[in-house]
Amino acid sequence: MARTLYYAPGACSLAAHIVLEESGLPFEGVELNLAAGDQRAPEYLAINERGRVPALVEDGWVLTECAAIMRHVARSVPEKGLWPTDLRRQAVADEWLGWLAVNHHVAYAHVRRPERYTADEEAYPEIRGKGADTYGDLCTMTEVRLSQGGWALGEQYSVVDPYLLLFWVWGRGTALKFDMAGRFPAWTAHARRMAERPAVRTVLAREGLPLPG
Ligand SMILES: N[C@@H](CCC(=O)N[C@@H](CS)C(=O)NCC(=O)O)C(=O)O
Asked: Which pTM does this prediction carry?
């Protein structure tokens, strides 16, 4: 099967990229430059009319939305255990994916893309500031959830963990510059454990991102 992942370095596609690498499925990665507007090029809009990454294409079939791609890839390789089999564990995995997608991602969008939330450029600093505060609050809640160590679902590594790494990377990044190790030590320990995984190291290197330190 021909399988292609459209991604941008350091974007939310990072999580799907890691899950695909963990899956062991063969795929081609196509890198988009969001700053240059590749996502709005007609060739890409023909794949994802929303003009966003990630997009996964399997033999011409297109799937978008990070969480959906991660679930689909994980379920395609049940032997890897990236998606739990136990019903309640599945529910908790869905709980994590939904919570992260509608809270962390949206708070971060206020920081990076204030133009989505107001037409008034003078309001950008306030929207960015409030988005950063909200992101910090969400990080604190994440820290509490991860304070018992292990992976998001306990002993079982799953698709939730790469998604968590994405939001840790964004917290560390230039837009937020959070002291992740100082403020969120349990989450940072999780990020460091992630960095021991060969698939994670491969993808971080491919996307030009430093390892969690
Ligand atoms: N709900 C989508 C959001 C996708 C999204 O917003 N992707 C961003 C990168 S993190 C993007 O492509 N931005 C390009 C733009 O806004 O022009 C998902 O979870 O996949």
From this structure: 0.97
Ligand 1 contacts CB of residue 104 (under 6 A) = no
pLDDT tens readout for residues 75-134: 999 999 999 999 999 999 999 999 999 999 999 999 999 999 999 999 999 999 999 999
Q: Which of 128, 98, 103 is nearest to 113 (CA)?
A: 128
Q: Among residues 174, 171, 195, which one has the least CA distance to residue 182?
A: 171
Domains observed in the chain: 3-80 (3.40.30.10), 87-197 (1.20.1050.10)
Candidate of 52, 69, 102, 167 to mutate for ligand 1, largest count of ligand atoms within 8 Å of Cβ: 52
Answer yes or no: is the C-beta of 56 below 6 A from any ligand 1 atom. no
